[in-house]
């Protein structure tokens, strides 16, 4: 397996950052949450984050969020399942998720 992944693979692995009340609280500890490809491994996620944001990753925790019921009126459906990666960075690095205007 190669040590670097190309630009197309990076955007396929990392989908979007997850911004909720809980994830904004853990930003103070240099921990960031991302929705990632469900089949991505921790090493691939680490390489993609380091290549995309030019940071050094210390630790990665992953979990798969199961589908949940969603009701709109009388219709019941399900939200898609996805994989969530919580990335801990080394002390001197940070990722700016919010645009400064």
From TrEMBL:
What is one Pfam family matched by this protein? Ribosomal_L23
Give yes or no: UniProt keyword RNA-binding.
yes
Recorded hits in InterPro entries, A to Z, give: Nucleotide-bd_a/b_plait_sf (IPR012677), Ribosomal_uL23-like (IPR013025), Ribosomal_uL23/eL15/eS24_sf (IPR012678)
What are the entry keywords?
A: Plastid, Ribonucleoprotein, Ribosomal protein, RNA-binding, rRNA-binding
Gene3D superfamilies per UniProt: 3.30.70.330
Highest rank taxon of the organism: Eukaryota
Which GO terms of the cellular component aspect does the record hold?
Answer: ribonucleoprotein complex; ribosome
Which ranges does the record mark as transmembrane?
none
* Gene Ontology terms for molecular function: rRNA binding; structural constituent of ribosome
GO biological process, alphabetically ordered: translation
Q: Which residues form a coiled coil?
A: none
Tell me which HAMAP family the record gives.
Ribosomal_uL23_B
Which PANTHER family does the entry link to? Answer: 60S RIBOSOMAL PROTEIN L23A (PTHR11620)
Q: Which family does it belong to?
A: Belongs to the universal ribosomal protein uL23 family.
Q: What is this protein called?
A: Large ribosomal subunit protein uL23c
């Amino acid at each position: 397996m190669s040590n670097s992944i190309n630009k197309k693979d990076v955007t396929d692995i990392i989908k979007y950052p997850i911004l909720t009340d809980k994830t904004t609280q853990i930003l103070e500890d240099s921990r960031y949450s991302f929705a990632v490809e469900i089949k991505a491994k921790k090493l691939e996620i680490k390489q993609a984050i380091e290549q995309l944001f030019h940071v050094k990753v210390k630790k990665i925790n992953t979990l798969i969020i199961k589908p949940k019921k969603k009701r709109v009126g009388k219709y019941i459906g399900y939200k898609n399942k996805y994989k969530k990666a919580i990335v801990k960075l080394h002390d001197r690095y940070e990722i700016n998720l919010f645009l400064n205007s």
